[in-house]
Amino acid sequence: MGENLIKRNERAAAGEGLPWEDVVASLPFNERGLLPAVAQQFDTREVLMMAWMNRESIEETLRTGRVCYWSRSRGKFWRKGESSGQVQNLKEMRLDCDGDTLLLMVDQTGPACHTGRRGCFYNVVKADRVVVDSEPLIDPDELYGK
Amino acid sequence: MGENLIKRNERAAAGEGLPWEDVVASLPFNERGLLPAVAQQFDTREVLMMAWMNRESIEETLRTGRVCYWSRSRGKFWRKGESSGQVQNLKEMRLDCDGDTLLLMVDQTGPACHTGRRGCFYNVVKADRVVVDSEPLIDPDELYGK
């Protein structure tokens, strides 16, 4: 693997940058060609979910403005909302200091979680229990047309 | 691998839960025994960084209230702030719907990023560039006593 170019931004001043085409070609995708991507609601700043992206899904997301992940379990592109109708529109894409994680600032329609809850991080560790903090916005059976 | 118990919370009502000891023993750690953990500043809701935790680092973090990751590059525990002094105090630990990602609500002292910036996600994709959005709070040479 060649140089991970994004590290050149470590000592760059605010406003400075690098060509995206060069950066994306040098990102440290894992052995499956994937990077983890955290989706955050752009206005409320709620962390909605974490999923995975490959280079093609990153490029599609930037091109279309609709978030497309790579589904590891199904082994195919996962255009968020394609079965549930609950799409994620991209507001901004960010990368961390070593380019091994993406942060997607999104505008999420309805629930992001397959359980029908707004976000996936509804399990809170409280003392010796893991407690659910919220109810579904939409019944998951309705969400997936069962 | 046995049943991933946290999935039983999918259809639980708010306030219901499961015993933590049973859940943590059944979490779907990856082939290296790790789960990704997203750290979010509890009050401003800024996403600060993403790192990895194993079962022991999760349990230490809950016990001490100071965030301890597992460093994949160094192959050892990484008690955040041990060399920089910039610690993360845990406010709340959350798990997602399928228990394969942690969300740590933290109170971060100073910069979370090794570059001296507040958070690691300072690289913004803008048109055909990846642009740095912020300056370090502290010079990284000072942070690590070089």
Structural class of chain A: alpha+beta
Strand content of chain A: 25-35%
SSE ordering of chain A? EHEEHEEEEEEH
Low-confidence stretches of chain A: none
**What is the rounded distance between the termini of chain A?**
46 Å
Oligomeric nature of the chains: homodimer
Taking Cα atoms only, what radius of gyration of chain A do you get, to the nearest Å?
17 Å
For the sheet with most strands of chain A, the description reads: 4 strands, mixed
Most extensive protein-chain contact, per-chain counts: A-B, 55 and 55 residues
Number of helices of chain A: 3
Q: What percentage of residues of chain A falls in helices of 4 or more residues?
A: 10-25%
- Overall shape of chain A: it is globular
Q: Find the count of extended strands of chain A (DSSP E, 2+ residues).
A: 9
**Looking across the biggest beta sheet of chain A, what order are the strands in?**
3-2-7-6
Give the overall pLDDT of chain A as a whole number: 96
